[in-house]
Amino acid sequence: MTVQRDRRDTRDPGASVGVVALGRDRRLRPQIAAIGALALLVVLAGLGLGGPSDDADGPSPSGPARTAAPSGTGVAALPSGDPQATSAAGDCDPLTSEAAPTVRLRSTSGDQSPVLGTNGPTPSTGPGPDPSDPDPSAPVAPTPGSPAEADWTVPGLERGLLLPSGASLILGAAQSACIAAVTVTYDDADAGTPGSNAREPWVVQPRRPTDEVRLGGLPAGDWVVRLDIEFAVPDTWLLSVARTAYFRVVASDAPVLAPSPQVTPAVACGPDPLGSGSPELVLVVDDGAPVAAQAGPDDPIPVEVAFGQVIEVRAIGNVCARGWSIEVSDGLGNAFLQESYPNPVDNPFLAAQNRWTLSQLLIGDSALVASIEFGRQRSGGGVWSLHLTTPGLPTGFASGPDGTVVPILPGCGQYWAQPGSDAFEPCFVQSVPDGLQPLRMEAGGVVRVELVGWSVVSWFARCGEVPESGDIRAEFVTLDGCDLGERQEPDAIAFVPWPGDRLVLVGITAERDGITAYGNYYVRIDAE
């Protein structure tokens, strides 16, 4: 019988598979003996010498689940008091090729979605039988590829699995492939040389091949778990396809570990024991009384907020979420994403958050919608009606060469910003305010614009018109080529208007006391 080593699965980069000749691996000789004994029993049963043959009353053909290796192999039993390592599913499909399928690991707690294994070196087939060896069942020296000496692969926490106390690991195979046996070894994930201090391995052999196998639990800690997996091949008892896979498993009762690699929670994560329901969400303004989400879409009561206030969505009890999406929408059908962290695999090590500060708000009326994922197939949501007010744009004036002064009036489209937050006014059209007073002056003169109490950061000026159709006023339209100038950090706002009766838009960004405001100001200028 030939032995093939290191057969690569081209469908899965980094895969390590092999066809193992069971008769040449000393660790598996007891299995060969068991199979031979079973064959003898079958023959005796056919002769009427083997006792009852009722499969319903007798043991399964492969005997009870093997959670410890046969005598002499030095393999430890299951840890964590797991009574047995048994089949977790049942039905499976034998392999139709020598390519080993991918495998995933999950927890019986249902705390997160199964994680995909990281492939490692092909399991060793051992040095083969030695005719001069007086004790074929004795342990052999470690060989390259064995759990004790092979180079281990340590997956990152982005592929980690959280294992609460009392929960067991469940190994599953793609394509419902039949798992015949699993050797489990683990070591500290932060070990200088992973695998150098590996705990004593144990073997899990289900009563019959299955596509899911319960492996048992682990003590508290951050572990890299090595699984040497054998898959059943049809029409033969002597060959199996093997794969080595590595998993990052954190055995802990903490719902998430913080600080996390990508998002750190605003405050320490609150308790979230297994079996807890989804936490409720509230809105908090300036650390005031929490505001529960509105009862439904017909709830008319808005939450009054002012620009500059700290507005947060919070989870009751500071329970940390693993994924979230928060947005605000205006009355025009536009939605603006506030913050989003998609986590479709429900990984607890990627992100943890329990308070979401709103940093981009809409001036006026808006709807705040929060959708939060807390793991374990739990989600929370909330909707609030907001009404945001601002201090009001600075008062401005335009003056002509003869000293005539008229007010400039802001239209729609204001914007406010301060460190950590901003707010803007959504506009269906760039509307022009009513009540503009014309500034009459001689053509060729200079118009100067001033804001009261604010420092001008930048400005631009354009002239245009607002087309009218009956009683409907359209938005402000700039005339072709009517550019009256622009400046950054100017000493003053000054420009020469085109001759004639013109509507002028002056966009001004100004600053005061660390707050920046922008407004679209309008003035009508009649330069004859």
What does this structure look like?
The chain is mainly beta. It folds into three domains: about 250 residues, no CATH class; about 110 residues, Immunoglobulins (Immunoglobulin-like, Sandwich); about 130 residues, no CATH class. The chain contains one helix and 35 strands. The strands form six sheets. Strands 20, 23, 24, 25, 26, 27, 28, 29, 32, 33, 34 and 35 form a twelve-stranded mixed beta sheet that branches. The longest helix has 18 residues. It starts with a strand and ends with a strand. The N terminus is likely disordered.
Main traits of this protein?
Immunoglobulin-like; 3 domains; 12-stranded mixed β-sheet; 3% helix; disordered N terminus
